[in-house]
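Researcher: Re-running this chain for the archive, since the previous output was lost when a drive failed. Same request as before.
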Amino acid sequence: SSCFVTGMKRCCCRAAPLLALFGIARGRPVGSMRGGGGTSFLSNMCRLRGGQHGAAAGETQIFETVVSSEVTRVATSPFEGQKPGTSGLRKKTSVFLQPGYLENFIQSLFDSLPDGELRGATLVVSGDGRYGNAAAVQIICKMAAAHGVARVWVGRDGLLSTPAASCVIREREGGVACGGVILSASHNPGGPDADFGIKYNVRNGGPALESLTEEVYERSTQIREYAIVAGLPDVDLSLEGRHVFVDEKGGAPHFEVEVIDPTEDYVALMASLFDFDALRSLLRRPDMSLVFDGMHGVAGPYARAIFGALGVADEALLNCIPSEDFGGGHPDPNLTYAAALAKLMGLTGQPAGGEPPVLGAAADGDADRNMIVGRRFFVTPSDSLAVIAAHAHALPWLARQGGLRALARSMPTSGAVDRVAEELGLPLFETPTGWKYFGNLMDSHLLGGADLSPLLCGEESFGTGSSHIREKDGLWAVLCWASILAHHNVDTPEGQLVGVEEVVTQHWRRFGRNFYTRYDYENVDAAAAEEIVERLRAMGSSFRGAGYGPSEPQLLQDGFALATIDEFSYRDPVDSSTTSQQGVRLLFADGSRIVLRLSGTGSVGATVRIYIERYQPPGDEYALLANATDALRPLVDLALHLSQVRELTGREAPTVIT
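Model: Regenerated structure tokens:
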């Protein structure tokens, strides 16, 4: 038998004892699942794959199954806490494995969509391949059928990266899909004891706005039943083709699941954006080398398709086979969790085997985040965004569209890109954390506002993207950096290649340098995290009550003059919605910043994030090239003192330092 989740020729589902408690046996043939009540996410976890085989090569396979379209309504009751965060609903896998938990959330989602939106529609359903992904796909397909969806597109083996899902929604068949259900907890670990997640992307390919997610949550607190076509058999997700369901042989289909090549649409889009011939020329140089770490996530198949076509050897594409538990690791592309890549690039000592590669990169579990590193040189995500913006003229699709029209960053992201916007004369938008805010800006012209596309945007949490889709895009960012290197090395003699460090250093000399770091304290007790925020709010009240402000800053240790303490709020210039309490900001007279916010992307507890930034203007070479840790140490000490994070959490050190 094969594990339904992985397709491996053994049952690796560690939920087997839990399954036995519910009387669910492993190894039941797919064809025997007929009739009865609802089929839970849990009961799908270890079922055999089935289906028909044997279509001629080159033809679209069609698999017709005669099965009733009868809808079963299953009584249920609300689960506590089905409130989506910044990027959907994320919980421990064991929470999603509760019978009815996934079904409740999907029913609440479908009920929250506009009337008639799903009737006769095409819906995208796929995920990053983490534990439980394929089982959840099957359940959602059956529920989609019950709600009148005509067709579901699923990536082969249930896989689509988050950027590719956005691409499929927007591009496939001219953008006919009404939206997509994306199964991912992004950069969080996967496995039976780790995390699972789900979010909805709307017709433009971007994440649902708060108005929709709030309605989903409200409905989840009142749900009494969910609808499912329980008799629909599971689809063999390994078989590309049309899986058509009819009430009688030769009859009109009442539902269809089309299993598609997960890389096709995305690779075609990348080929239209970048000059692949120029990239091949760069990568053929004897003095050029690239290494990519897929971190055992869904980025792997896309990296192999794209970089393989560009001539990158297989041995340079590391950890590029997706794994349900991401190889037992944490698929977050930073210097802590991508430590093997950091070592290979010479960031933590001289690697074995000679000089490190020229360009290194990694992507997270669902391939929307990226890390860029050069030979012995780390590029902060904030600098990466700024450098890409300053090189817009070197990116073919932007040049074809007349260049950038706007830039945007999340509030915690450093002001490096602000200086590029100022020099280029472009509008700069500062938004809350969450890609949905960028999506609104990209589609401003559709709502009667200014046309801001092409728009380039990014977040300090290793997310970079543009208006080519409505999600951040890890592989796109890597291709941007390869294109920048190609631009700088068109006429460079062999042996004198301009590398990543040289590109960034040139940027600092032109725009100045924003020294920047982020301290993450993960899985902190939620009450302790809130106490930290409340402490800073109280500090702000006292600050203002004492008459301090921009015209009369408060002098603190090491000569820092505190000019403002506030909480960031945002009024969307497109739809006029307001988002408040997005992080406490301490702004200093010299332009330095300390920002503290609680992250909404974890599955348990809270993640406390402290962002620390100091600007160094151009002109002083020694100061520009200073060690970032040394340059920021006084401001870091001040941040730890003011927040009392060590005292209130009991943590002597952060989980991750970026």
